[in-house]
């Protein structure tokens, strides 16, 4: 049989096998790429082995790729009915390219404006910008799985953090520990930590009144310090040093950005671990802190996250690696998200003096800002935070799940085949005029009870995600952002630094899985009450 024909036939057969089995391991991928040409060369026993193998390999790869592309573009593909960019339908590498400059959230919104509420953004991927999709995709944990791409975050031989657990039952068991550590009864354990860090932030800014201050940087240090207290009982002290000499935050930003890119191509997990792990410096710090905490035992006076982890039943035992991974996730996810909300809130308030004065009047009337229950009753304060999270969600590209592995499913009226990767993108959804009138304008009043001047559908607003895999730290984050923002607004007069162009703030914002912000230079002055 002609060797050309065998190469073409083996390429077509490999496409069929890959389509049905979706090989992921390193060995499986190497076999797919090289086994057929190697066997063909061995069987043919040509006089010139290398030229024969090179030709067979080339024809095989060209056939495999051509067959794959043809199928993905054909009307026979189960997602062919849904529109999207041509290159996105061909390869998931389009999503990597789309994310490189940090502006994927902007482009996804434009795609929804062009194509509608469902857009095919990968060979087996769709973005669904619809409130009707939320319950279907996020509520039924037993049927929908976390996207396999999350596993690219797991280091070789590592357990992985709760974020990387894709099996619903495994996630449910792991989540129970977190739910106890972040239950309302446990939040009181963190109050003294939070109050101390807010006081430290206030005193540090008091000393810098009248000077230019990068409030974005200080809020990052504040949230990192607090999350270090929360996870490990105190470890970082960025505010005390007014610096990040170990470049911990920049390492976090780079690591998250790299992980976001590779997570879009799950099979790269088989090879990515051959490269230097961008999370390695952070994991070393986390493992060292776990060892120190374990040496102290479970009778430590400080009731931090680690303390609650140690109170788990024996059937929920976590390895040291899992503890280190989960504690690191707490610091990373809890610091950058809260600091971005606070920094964006300051930006929007300084840009809108009327909203700033209205919030300040509410806080002045509320009196004691150390009263958490009192702050929770400040309606305009929560309205400002909600509007900030609507315009600048901490996770702009939202959440991603994989549809049930057998049988079709209907999402927001659209029929999807098994194992479809479904994104619910927060940035386009929260700025969709079907749910929020004047979607690009900062209008906290839309969140006040009884307001009828706006199209306002809160079912489309899920900044902390939704369902069993929603953010476990939601209540802690709300307490933190309320208390910190209230202190800043009531304590200081805030203005943009002379010469600073406020338009730069939104230009500098990037989507690196979580929102990445730039500098926000302001001048603070103590208010005369």
TrEMBL record:
TM spans (from-to): 28-45
Cofactor: heme
Binding site for heme: 471
Pathway info: Secondary metabolite biosynthesis
PANTHER family: CYTOCHROME P450, P450, PUTATIVE (EUROFUNG)-RELATED
UniProt similarity note: Belongs to the cytochrome P450 family.
UniProt protein name: Cytochrome P450
Organism for this UniProt entry: Exidia glandulosa HHB12029
């Amino acid at each position: 049989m002609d060797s050309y024909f065998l190469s073409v036939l083996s390429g077509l057969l490999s496409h069929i096998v890959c389509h049905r089995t979706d090989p992921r391991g390193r060995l499986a991928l190497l076999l797919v790429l090289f086994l057929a040409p190697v066997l063909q060369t061995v069987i043919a026993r040509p006089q010139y082995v290398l030229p024969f193998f090179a030709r067979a390999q080339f024809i095989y790869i060209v056939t495999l790729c051509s067959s794959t592309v043809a199928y993905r573009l054909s009307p026979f593909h189960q997602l062919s009915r849904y529109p999207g960019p041509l290159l996105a339908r061909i390869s998931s590498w389009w999503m990597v390219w789309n994310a490189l400059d940090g502006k994927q959230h902007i482009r996804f919104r434009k795609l929804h404006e062009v194509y509608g509420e469902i857009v095919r953004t990968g060979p087996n991927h769709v973005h669904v910008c619809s409130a009707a999709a939320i319950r279907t995709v996020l509520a039924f944990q037993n049927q929908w799985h976390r996207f396999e791409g999350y596993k690219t975050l797991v280091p070789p031989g590592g357990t992985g953090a709760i974020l990387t657990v894709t099996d619903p039952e495994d996630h449910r068991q792991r989540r129970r520990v977190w739910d106890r550590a972040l239950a309302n009864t446990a939040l009181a354990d963190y109050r003294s930590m939070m109050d101390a860090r807010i006081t430290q932030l206030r005193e540090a800014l008091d000393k810098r009144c009248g000077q230019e201050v990068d409030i974005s940087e200080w809020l990052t240090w504040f949230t990192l310090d607090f999350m270090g207290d929360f996870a490990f009982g105190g470890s970082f002290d960025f505010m005390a040093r007014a610096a990040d000499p170990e470049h911990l935050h920049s390492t976090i930003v780079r690591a998250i950005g790299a992980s976001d890119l590779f997570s879009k191509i799950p099979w790269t997990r088989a090879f990515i671990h051959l490269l230097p792990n961008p999370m390695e410096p952070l994991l070393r710090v986390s493992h060292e802190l776990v060892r120190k905490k374990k040496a102290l035992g479970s009778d430590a006076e400080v009731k931090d996250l680690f303390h609650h982890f140690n109170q788990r039943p024996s059937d929920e035992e976590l390895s040291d690696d899992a503890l280190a991974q989960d504690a690191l996730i707490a610091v990373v996810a809890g610091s950058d998200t809260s600091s971005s909300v606070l920094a964006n809130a300051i930006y929007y308030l300084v840009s809108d003096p009327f909203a700033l004065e209205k919030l300040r009047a509410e806080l002045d009337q509320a009196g004691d800002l150390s009263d958490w229950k009192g702050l929770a009753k400040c309606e305009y304060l929560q309205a400002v935070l909600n509007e900030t999270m609507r315009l600048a969600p901490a996770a702009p590209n939202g959440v991603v799940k994989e549809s049930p592995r057998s049988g079709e499913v209907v999402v927001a009226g659209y029929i999807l085949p098994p194992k479809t990767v479904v994104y619910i993108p927060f940035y386009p959804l929260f700025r969709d005029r079907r749910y929020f009138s004047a979607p690009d304008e900062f209008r906290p009043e839309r969140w006040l009870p009884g307001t009828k001047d706006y199209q306002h559908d809160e079912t489309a607003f899920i900044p902390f995600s939704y369902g069993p895999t929603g953010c476990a730290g939601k209540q802690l984050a709300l307490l933190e952002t309320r208390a910190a923002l209230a202190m800043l607004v009531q304590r200081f007069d805030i203005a943009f630094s002379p010469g600073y162009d406020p338009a730069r703030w939104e230009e500098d914002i990037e989507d690196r899985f979580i929102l990445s912000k730039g500098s926000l230079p302001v001048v603070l002055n103590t208010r005369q009450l």
